[in-house]
Amino acid sequence: MSRKRWRLLALAAAGLTTAGMLAGPVSASENEGTASAPSASAAGVRLGYFVNWGVYQRNYHVKNIHTSGSAEKLTHINYAFGNVTNGQCQIGDAYADYDKFYDAASSVDGQPDTWDQGALRGNFNQLRKLKQMYPHLKILYSFGGWTWSSGFGEAAKNPEAFAESCYRLVEDPRWADVFDGIDIDWEYPNACGDTCDDSGPEAFANLMRALRNRFGPDNLVTAAITADASPGGKIDAADYAAAAQYVDWYNVMTYDFFGAWEAQGPTAPHSPLTSYDGIPTQGFNSDAAIQKLKGKGIPADKLLLGIGFYGRGWTGVSQSAPGGSASGPAPGTYEQGIEDYKVLKTKCPPTGQGAGTPNANG
């Protein structure tokens, strides 16, 4: 995801072609003694992100997953984010993750946290309680993201040591029962995101192979990957096809193609499904991304289409069609240029009533 500071989204279990439609067996590793992913499929996966920073300004807690009715609809949750520093997986926010006290009113099950020595608190304990209420839920610990991807280059120098550090953190006895696997959100291997990486096209596959070997076949291993299908773009920068055998699925970040980080535009939908006349950058749409990844040999049933649960916009736009200029980012509740779905849904027209193409907020 190109601008993931406020990542609140769900991932549908489908690409432009439905995931599972072109199901095929997961290829075995060519390297003797190297584990590959079980014959898993992304079909039926309904995954959402829970971000640890949401407990602050947004006041969104694990209990809200329950009270909103989302828990019974989701199959998987990615907990975001853990950090990557000095070639190792690290806790992202110790207070929010496992120390924040939840009283009876704010706790998932109505039972307050305890200050007993060694007791688990924070989001991890709330996620544990959520899983007890919804045994079908699987939770993955997601590492990296837009802000914390600079450490992957160092990790790629010794993938086995990195994988060992991640395993020890995810399987820490204090919360080993909370997580069912690991998700890697490297933005971007052998390309530029918030920082630039020059690890080479093979680095990503080497990292995912080491993680699969360490986590084994009984844990989920997934990755969020770029949707930049432009010629010579980020999909071409790393060998995602070689790494596919080690992952259960890829979360394709088919959102944030355009946004008000370019304050003067060009204005355009941030998550277009297909291309359209006047699109500012060719290959910046969901269909192009899925087709390009499939064309590189990645099975369709390993591709999850990303859906951003937020909107992006500008103010002072010059035209209603895509490709116009703007005077700056649109106002937002938490940040200029972006608005959460929970806010937007109170402003949208009733179901069935058209509102035009949401290219930009003028």
TrEMBL record:
Q: Does the keyword Hydrolase apply?
A: yes
Record's keyword terms, sorted? Carbohydrate metabolism, Chitin degradation, Glycosidase, Hydrolase, Polysaccharide degradation, Signal
Q: What is its EC number?
A: 3.2.1.14
One annotated GO biological process: carbohydrate metabolic process
Give GO terms: molecular function aspect only: chitin binding; endochitinase activity
The domain of life is Bacteria
Q: Where are the transmembrane segments?
A: none
Signal sequence extent: 1-23
Domain GH18 residue range list: 44-362
Q: Which reaction does it catalyse?
A: Random endo-hydrolysis of N-acetyl-beta-D-glucosaminide (1->4)-beta-linkages in chitin and chitodextrins
Homology family: Belongs to the glycosyl hydrolase 18 family.
Identification of the protein by name:
chitinase
Organism of this sequence: Thermocrispum agreste
